[in-house]
UniProtKB/TrEMBL annotation, chains A, B:
Keyword set, alphabetical order: DNA-binding, Repressor, Transcription, Transcription regulation
Protein name: TetR family transcriptional regulator
Family annotation (InterPro entries): DNA-bd_HTH_TetR-type_CS, Homeodomain-like_sf, HTH-type_TetR-like_transc_reg, HTH_TetR, KstR2_TetR_C, Tet_transcr_reg_TetR-rel_C_sf
Organism, scientific name: Lentzea atacamensis
Domain HTH tetR-type: 3-63
One Gene Ontology molecular-function label: transcription cis-regulatory region binding
Superkingdom of source: Bacteria
PANTHER family recorded: HTH-TYPE TRANSCRIPTIONAL REGULATOR RUTR, HTH-TYPE TRANSCRIPTIONAL REPRESSOR KSTR2
DNA bind region: 26-45
PROSITE patterns: HTH_TETR_1 (PS01081), HTH_TETR_2 (PS50977)
Length: 189, 189
């Protein structure tokens, strides 16, 4: 978890990147909006693209830790899938701005960071795939649809959230999360 | 359906936009790659952004026509959903390059075209929503998960295809389409 100052900087950067674009936002504007000193910003982030990467890294790191924690509980496959999906949908739905900024600007990441990002995303994908495959092997889930397609369907709706979802809209994150988990589990029965 | 010359121009533009970006592609390069005259290109497209819009408009127009045609067959709700999803997944999976280019560059569309695009997309969304709602009202589908979330799940995986799917990969479009339709219908039972 980032400290309070780091989080203030990230929140300000997300708001500015989302409203006026990454290019149009200067480090000075972020510093002013976050009400911190330039020295404080450079203590945490070497440059603006460091901040872009960190915005997303924090989110995916938290989501990975959540998934690992849930798997370690040793619940049934259905309960494991439900907990993972609810946690993933809620954390993504609450932070659609971060995800939208990252998706739009990720082509700016340097090769090392892009590699790190892809590895993190692949690990997350494969861990969830393993949960579905285990449930299918145990006979708790239907094997009618291959696990890789089930994962693409579950992650598809999550990855599209930034395009249409607003956390202050008619459907709160927890309700949406419950509906998505219900549907995926119904499909796996 | 576009004529042969128009399709050659579109195919060349998609290849160039996908490989080197929209900005870096000149009208002259498109003309050369398509093996047509500049006059032929300007006969069909006023400018480069006309071409960008047309690439996507052709796809969504064909998909809308497919959906209308399927609904008119008067099949059961389950068969209607299956036919719509298979047709949508196959047409998108076969043309992931077009969709990827459009998604990346759509912010360049002028206001009138953006409005037209949004209206077309909304109409498609609402027609499919109506099919799910009808099946739920008739009792053919479960109402456990609200129709709007079912539509977001079904379209989520379709809209994410350009991010990961390759039509020449291990899973051909028709097989992927069948799996997605199977899963969505299992969730609706």
């Amino acid at each position: 978890m980032p400290g309070a100052t780091e989080q203030k900087i990230i929140d300000a950067a997300v708001r500015l990147f989302a409203s006026q674009g990454y290019d149009a936002t200067s480090v000075q504007e972020i510093v002013t909006a976050a009400e911190v000193t330039k020295g404080a910003l450079y203590h945490y982030f070497r440059a603006k693209d460091d901040l872009l990467f960190e915005i997303y890294r924090l989110l995916i790191t938290a989501q990975s830790a959540d998934m690992d924690r849930i798997i370690e509980l040793g619940l049934s496959s259905a309960d494991t899938v439900r907990e993972i999906l609810v946690s993933l949908v809620v954390s993504t739905a609450e932070r659609v701005d971060e995800t939208a900024v990252f998706v739009r600007e990720m082509h700016r990441l340097d090769e090392a960071r892009m590699t790190e990002f892809r590895a993190e995303r692949r690990r997350y994908h494969e861990t969830f795939l393993g949960v579905i495959e285990k449930g299918q092997a145990d006979g708790e889930f239907s094997s009618a649809v291959p696990a890789d397609t089930v994962v693409r369907i579950a992650f598809g709706v999550v990855n599209q959230l930034p395009v249409w979802y607003r956390p202050d809209g008619p459907k709160p994150p927890a309700r949406l999360a419950g509906e998505i988990a219900d549907f995926v589990l119904a499909g796996l029965r």
